[in-house]
Automatic annotation (TrEMBL):
This is Ig-like domain-containing protein. Pfam families: V-set. Residues 1-91 form the Ig-like domain. Keywords: Immunity, Signal. The keyword rRNA-binding does not apply. It comes from Oncorhynchus kisutch (Coho salmon). The keyword RNA-binding does not apply. GO terms for biological process: cell surface receptor signaling pathway; immune system process. GO terms for cellular component: plasma membrane. InterPro entries: Ig-like_dom, Ig-like_dom_sf, Ig-like_fold, Ig_V-set, TCR_beta_variable.
Length: 107
């Protein structure tokens, strides 16, 4: 779906899925200037997280576990890079730690 918006316009995108075990919905941006997928943020259960590089420009919300829906909000379109393709993806939350990053080894 193509959405045409002008500067200062608000944009709201919706993503939903039907996989019962998936409790996280992620939002990605792919701009014409940089075709790499950049993680904007995600909703795990009902807890939203926005990556530092997108804070202040985007908000995420929703309930990825019960309602299986998440929203991406642009309070206002301000940058040329906002003209992009946006993707959402759903997954099971996975938590892990890397012990070597948790402790400093004395030298």
């Amino acid at each position: 779906t193509a959405i045409l918006k002008g500067p200062e316009d608000k944009v709201n995108l919706t993503c939903s899925h039907t996989v019962s075990s998936y409790d996280t919905i992620l939002w990605y941006q792919q701009s014409a200037q940089n075709t790499a997928l950049k993680l904007i943020g995600y909703v795990r259960y009902t807890s939203p997280t926005v990556e530092d590089s997108f804070k202040g420009r985007f908000d995420v919300s929703g309930d990825a576990a019960a309602n299986k829906m998440a929203y991406l909000h642009f309070p206002k379109v301000t940058e040329a890079e906002d003209s992009a393709v946006y993707f959402c993806a759903a997954s099971e939350a996975q938590c892990f730690t890397i012990p070597s990053l948790l402790y400093k080894n004395p030298l």
